[in-house]
Amino acid sequence: MSKDRIRRPSLLSKVVSADQAASLIHDGMTVGMSGFTRAGEAKAVPLALAARNAAHPIKITLLTGASLGNNIDKLLTEAGVLARRLPFQSDATLRNAINQGDVLFIDQHLSETVEFLRSHQMKPVDVAIIEAVAITEDGGIVPTTSVGNSASFALSAKQIIVELNSSHAAELEGLHDIYIPGKRPLRDSIPVVASNSRIGTHAIPVNPDNIAAIVLTDKFDSPASLAAPDSETIAIAAHLTDFLSNEVKQGRLSNSLNPLQAGIGNIANSVLYGLVHSPFEQLTMYSEVLQDSTVALLDSGKLVFASGASMTLSQPVADAFFPHIAKYKDRLVLRPQEISNHPEIIRRLGIIAINTALECDIYGNVNSTHVNGTHMMNGIGGSGDFARNAYMAIFVAKSTAKDGAISTVVPMVTHCDHNEHDVDILVTEHGLADLRALAPRERAKIVINNCVDPAYRDQALDYHNRALARGGQTPHVLEEAFSWHQQRAKTGSMRLS
Amino acid sequence: MSKDRIRRPSLLSKVVSADQAASLIHDGMTVGMSGFTRAGEAKAVPLALAARNAAHPIKITLLTGASLGNNIDKLLTEAGVLARRLPFQSDATLRNAINQGDVLFIDQHLSETVEFLRSHQMKPVDVAIIEAVAITEDGGIVPTTSVGNSASFALSAKQIIVELNSSHAAELEGLHDIYIPGKRPLRDSIPVVASNSRIGTHAIPVNPDNIAAIVLTDKFDSPASLAAPDSETIAIAAHLTDFLSNEVKQGRLSNSLNPLQAGIGNIANSVLYGLVHSPFEQLTMYSEVLQDSTVALLDSGKLVFASGASMTLSQPVADAFFPHIAKYKDRLVLRPQEISNHPEIIRRLGIIAINTALECDIYGNVNSTHVNGTHMMNGIGGSGDFARNAYMAIFVAKSTAKDGAISTVVPMVTHCDHNEHDVDILVTEHGLADLRALAPRERAKIVINNCVDPAYRDQALDYHNRALARGGQTPHVLEEAFSWHQQRAKTGSMRLS
C-alpha cells in the first residue's frame, strides 16, 4: 500500500518498524498523539513504547485529543510510561492511577490545549504521533477518523511519526477541514458561519522534513460500546423533544432548531436517536464526537449536515458506514477540536448543547467529572466549551444511579464544572426543568418537582425548606450540604430514612 | 439646552416631567434601564417611580447593564417596586432584600442578558429608560458614560423614555461604538480585531416613533468610592508585574502584553495603577469598566487605547477628565457590554483577564459571588465571560478579611463561579500561584505555599495532607470541606486552634 498512500516518493525511505519509531521517544519528552474518543489514535508506536519500557524505562507527558481506543491508555499506564496525561481520558486503569496520584492528570477544556501550546504556556510537543490515511504529494498528513489536536501537534512538533493505517478507507481523504487560528493578539476571525463551512485544507500541511518515521499499521479503531436506548433514556429524549417542539411553537426556534451538539455517551446518543422520529426537519450538528445517532439522523434525512472532531461508531454501524463514506462526504466534516469546540463559533452559531451530568444540584449546578468531589471519572471534555458559550445549555442525567442508592440530584454538587450561570435546562427521566432567567429559589422548586426521583423528593424538599429558613440567594444548610454523600458512605445509600 | 441636544425637532414635543414619564410604567412590566457600574443610569424616572409607588403600587422586573449609582437600587427597593432584578447589583439595601427572598435576583454573565432577550428566552422589555447626551437628527440616542445593555434595550422596547442629562459633556458624543450582532443561527463574525476597532455607529439607531417621552435632567453620576492602594494591593500588583515581566522575558508575551481586562474594585484598580511604573509599553485594554487607573495609564503614556462598556471614576479624576474628554476620544471607546464581554472577541484578542475573588480554594476554584455559599454579594458580572475565554485568567484577592478572622483561601469554595479549568493564576499579597497546566495535587502545594496567609498555612497543609491520604484527582475530606466556615460561625474566626 505504501506507494498509494505515501504520495511523496522521498518519504518512502522513512518507513520503519514501530519499535524503531518508538526509539525516537526519550525520557521526559512531551508526546502529542492523535486520537479522540477512541477514534483515530496511533495504534502501533504506543504499544512498542510500552513494550520497550521494561528495558528502557522512560516517563513521558502524553497529550491527545481526548480518550483513546485499543486499550492504549491502559497499556501505557501498566507499563509505567505515563508521568502526565492531558486533556481527557476514559480508561479504568488510567483512572485508578490518576486517583492514586501515580499519573498526574490535567483536565482541560478540549478547545484550550492547543491554545496553551501555541502561546508556549505549556511545554512544547517533542514528538507527534499521528495516525493517517495517506501522505500527500506535498507531505501533508491526511488524518483518519478523528482530527482532535493532531494538526497542531504535528505542526508544532520537532519530529513527527506517522502511522499509516490501511484499515481505514482511502475515501476518508477529503472529509477533513484543517484550519489553525493565528497567533494572538493579532488573530483574525475564524470564518465558520455554518456547520457546513469549509475553511481549511484536506491535509495537515506539515514540513515533510519533520516527518521522522512512517509506520505501517492495519489495526481497526475500537468500536464504541453504546448501550441501546432504555426506558429512562427514551423518557429523557421524549421530554427534550417535547420541550424543543414547544420552543418551535412559541417562535423561539425554527423547525430546524439551531445547530446541535451532543456529548459522548449513551444518554446524549439516545436523545439524538429520539430526533429521528421528531417533527423537526433540516437539522444540523456542530458537535464534537459524531456517534451512531448521527448516522441514523443522516440516513433518516432529518440531518442535513454534521460537523465534528471525530467519529466513534459501534461495530455494526461502522461496518455499514465506512465502506460507503463517499456517499456521506458532502454532508460531513471533521475539524480540529479547537474549531469544533471554539467559543467564537459556538456563540455565533447559537448552538443547542446537550451534555451529560454526573451529578447536579437543586440549584442547577453540574458536576461532570468528580465522584464524591474527589475521584476523577473521565474529565470535563468539551462540555465547558459548549455550555458557557451556547445558545442553550442542556444537561441530561438519569435521576438515580447504583439501583437507586445514589440520587444524581443532590443538595449541593461536590464539584462544580458548570454553574448556575451556565445551566439552562436539566432533564432526567422524570421530567425537564427549564431554568432560564430564574433565581436560584425558583430553580430549586422546579428541579425538585420535575427532576428528582420520587424516592428522594421529600428529603430534597426538606433540605431546601430548612435552607430557605436561613435565607440567602442560594439557600443552603452548609453543614449538611454533603450529608447525602456521607450517608451513602456510611450506609451504602443516599436515602436518609 | 433642549434644541442643542434634541436635534430632531419633531421630538421636542415629547419633553415631559419625570412623573409623567413614570406613568408609562405599569404593574408587571419589564423595564430595561441604562446604567453600568454607577455610570450613565437613568436618574429621574426611577425616582419618580419610587415616589409614586405609595399611591400606585406596582412591581416590575428591572434589567440594567450592571450596578447603578445615585442610590437608585436602594430607593426602588425601599419603595417596594422591584419584583425581579438582573443581571448585577451592588447595593446594600437591595442585597439584603435579595438575600431575604423579597427581590428575586437573576445573576447572569453580563454578555448574555441581551442574547436571552434577542432570542425571546426571557420576557421582552416593555419600556426602556436610557440616559442620553443627545438625540441626533435621525432620532438616534447618544449614550452617556456607559453603554451597557442600553442599545439592545432601546432597540427592542415597545416604548423608550430618554433622560437627556445636561451634566454630561456634549463632547461625549462620538465616544461610543454601537454594534448589535445578528440573530442566530445566521450571525456573521463580529469584526473587532483589536481594542481600537470601531465597527458600529455613534448613536443607538432607534425608530424615533418609539421615543415616548423625554425627560430633562442634570444630576451627576455617583463617583466611584475607590480606596487608595494599600500595602497589600501594592504587593499584589508587584507580584503580578514581576510575573508578567517574566512572561515577556521568556518570550511568551511581547512588552505590550496582550489586551488587558480588569474587574471593578480596589484590588484590580490598584493592579492597573502598578503598571504605570512597569517596564511595559504600548499597552491596550479591552475591558468592561474603565476606572481611575485607566486614566492614569492613558496620562502616563503607557496605555495607547482603552475599550470598555462604561467609565466609573472617582470625583477628583472625573473632574479632571470629563472637561477634557475631547483630547482622550481617539484613545477610548465605549461599547455595548455584549461586545466588551463577547466570548468571540475575548478569545480572539487573547485577553489577560484580572478579576477579584471573594474566596478561592487550594485547588484554584473561585467564588466571586456568595458569602458562605449562600448570601449574594454583588453578582458574577463579567468575570465568567472573561475567565472562560481569556488567554490567561488571573484572580486576585487579599489573603484574609475581617482582620484575619477569614482566610479567603479555603479547603473548598462554598460556591464555585470559576473552576479549576478556568483559573490560571492566583495572587494574594503573599505571592503568586502559577497554576497553568498543573494537576490539582500540584496546584494545592503552590497555592498553600504562595498565597495562603501564614496564620492559616498549617491548617491548610494539614487538611490537604489528610485529604491526600484518601486519594483522588482533587483530594478532599468531604465532611470537613466547609469546616473553616463552620468554625467562623461558631467562634468568629476560621482559625481552628
Automatic annotation (TrEMBL), chains A, B:
Its EC number is 3.1.2.1. The active site is at 288 (5-glutamyl coenzyme a thioester intermediate). It is an enzyme of class 3 (hydrolase). Gene3D superfamilies: 4-hydroxybutyrate coenzyme like domains, Acetyl-CoA hydrolase/transferase C-terminal domain, Glutaconate Coenzyme A-transferase. Residues 11-215 form the Acetyl-CoA hydrolase/transferase N-terminal domain. InterPro entries: AcetylCoA_hyd_C, AcetylCoA_hyd_C_sf, ActCoA_hydro, ActCoA_hydro_N, NagB/RpiA_transferase-like, Succinate_CoA_transferase. Residues 328-460 form the Acetyl-CoA hydrolase/transferase C-terminal domain. Keywords: Hydrolase, Transferase. Belongs to the acetyl-CoA hydrolase/transferase family. This is Succinate CoA transferase. It comes from Beijerinckia indica subsp. indica (strain ATCC 9039 / DSM 1715 / NCIMB 8712).
